[in-house]
């Protein structure tokens, strides 16, 4: 069963074809890593999947249902089932609110979105997500009291707090000092072991080969390879 399907997606910025006929299938529970040079369209691809960018032609389907793009960016989720399917995203920069505690940062989105704002339930779930990323003991600290790796783990907990069906990571370790990279990759690896469907843009090749079911190479807005890393090892 397919979680996410991109069919002949094209996106133009000015005169540049930033996404040039992208087709990609992501089955539920699978991990896809996207690698490629800077400017090849990786970030735009993730942002299109998350509705942060509109696409010019093609289709994006989630759980077999088409997204409908409206007003040049917003995804209109007309279908009830599609409304339940949420996408969590983690960016290179963690962008935590500096004047809110770790716990408050994680609770913010669910408090904002939930119609029945059961604060206590949201708090308990947020604490569980912080435990999952190993940050429960820092729940009452402020972002500036944390390392970059710790802040990024909070950002992952924040994305998980909306209970997403799919997680997108846009170079989650690129802004980190080298010694902090592994603690973040470890959390992402654990999510993959739990069966989370994920698309990860990364330059961490060893990690990508370890966790991914497919490795997608992008260049100039196109997918030039889409391979099973196990097969790639065999043919090397
Ligand atoms: P990558 O993530 O692979 O580095 P991006 O998706 O960020 O690539 O960018 C792909 C191309 O699209 C680049 O040439 C970039 O300059 C351009 N681009 C990205 N966002 C915009 C935008 N909002 N307006 C115009 N051009 C953009
Ligand atoms: P990344 O590191 O993910 O590739 P960039 O630094 O390329 O991101 O872009 C950061 C932001 O600037 C994104 O929101 C992207 O859409 C926008 N952007 C990138 N290139 C351009 C561009 N040429 N014109 C306008 N906006 C751009």
Distance between the termini: 31 Å
The low-pLDDT segments are: none
Which kinds of small molecule does this entry bind, naming each only once?
Answer: adenosine-5'-diphosphate
Strand content: 25-35%
How much helical structure, as a percent, in the residues? Answer: 25-40%
Query: How many DSSP H or I helices?
Result: 8
Principal-axes geometry comes out as globular
Tell how many strands the DSSP assignment holds: 12
Main beta-sheet strand count, sense and barrel state: 6 strands, mixed
Widest sheet: strand order?
Answer: 8-9-10-3-11-12
Question: Average pLDDT, to the nearest integer?
Answer: 91
Oligomer: single chain
What is the C-alpha radius of gyration, as a whole number of Å?
A: 18 Å
Structural class: alpha/beta
- The string of secondary-structure elements, in order, is EEEHEEEEHEHHHEHEHEEH
Written description of the protein model:
The protein is built from 8 helices and 12 strands. The chain is of the alpha/beta class. The strands form 3 sheets. It has a 6-stranded mixed β-sheet with strand order 8-9-10-3-11-12, sandwiched between helices. It has a 4-stranded antiparallel β-sheet with strand order 2-1-4-5, with helices on one face. Strands 6-7 form a two-stranded antiparallel sheet. A hairpin with a 2-residue loop joins strand 4 and strand 5. Helix 3 (102-113) packs across helix 4 (119-132), helix 3 packs parallel to helix 5 and helix 4 packs across helix 5 (148-160). The radius of gyration is 18 Å and the shape is globular. The chain starts with a strand and ends with a helix. The mean pLDDT is 91.
